[in-house]
Design goal:
Largest sheet: none
Strand content: under 5%
Shape: extended
Number of helices: 7
Number of strands: 0
Order of helices and strands: HHHHHHH
Structural class: mainly alpha
Length: 239
């Protein structure tokens, strides 16, 4: 075993690169073989990906999160009140796997979900909603953007941004009178805005789907080009 390890350590960079290219090509073919249906080669590539990703995530969690804080906890007693508390919550979370004391895991779960919900809500408000409202205060005068068609184009773009923001926000207005006869002009205008907002949302989802599809085909193209280069190199070496 030691002989094999020494041989691997002393491999030349060109040999290591060639082995890496072969592994990448074979794994790419294994993943693409799913086109023909589920098969052992695809499952092997899938298990390798999941296992390597889980191992890499665990190593990052240990080296960048757990070990630095554990070392600080052991060397600096002043951090016990802070890091000790979170380590205790983590240990309580492990109690979820032990039925007699599984109730101890409810406290860290409550802290985790409550903090996550608060961070998500705060991020949505400060990172999305407020900036979107700020950029919606735009001038609709073409003279503020330039002369001729350029000014009109920017003014129309600003108008679409303002109208899109207003109509999309109006979709999330859920109160309505129970009696259809009590729907006034304001509510009927709101219905028109909501209908327009739903169409804007669908356009946004369509654009996101188109972007994801283009990204998928770009990645697929890069892998096919890689396989073509690998096959061309393999044929040339064989000849």
């Amino acid at each position: 075993m030691q002989t094999v390890i020494n041989a691997l350590v002393h491999l030349s960079p060109a040999t290591v690169e060639a082995v890496g290219i072969w592994f990448a090509a074979l794994l790419t073919l294994a993943v693409l073989s799913f086109i023909l249906g589920d098969n052992p080669f695809f499952r092997l590539a899938e298990y390798l990906f999941v296992g390597i990703a889980a191992g890499y995530a665990a190593s990052l969690a240990w080296s960048n999160v757990l070990w630095p804080r554990l070392r600080l906890l052991l060397t600096d007693p002043g951090t016990w009140w802070y890091y000790g508390l979170f380590f205790a919550l983590g240990m309580c979370l492990l109690a979820r796997g032990i039925k007699p004391i599984s109730a101890l895991g409810n406290l860290p779960l409550g802290v985790l979900f409550g903090t996550g919900a608060a961070l998500a809500l705060g991020g949505v408000i400060t990172g999305t909603l407020v900036p979107q409202l700020q950029v919606s205060f735009l001038s609709l005068s073409p003279a503020d953007y330039g002369q001729g068609l350029i000014g009109w184009a920017h003014a129309i773009d600003a108008l679409l941004l303002v109208v899109g923001t207003i109509t999309v926000l109006s979709v999330f207005h859920f109160s309505a009178p129970e009696d259809e006869t009590h729907k006034g002009i304001g509510y009927r205008l709101l219905e028109i805005l909501q209908g327009t907002g739903r169409k804007v949302i669908m356009i946004g989802f369509g654009a996101l789907l188109a972007g994801a599809t283009l990204s998928f085909f770009a990645i697929l193209k890069s892998r096919l080009v890689f396989l073509y280069d690998w096959l061309a190199r393999f044929v040339n070496v064989g000849l």
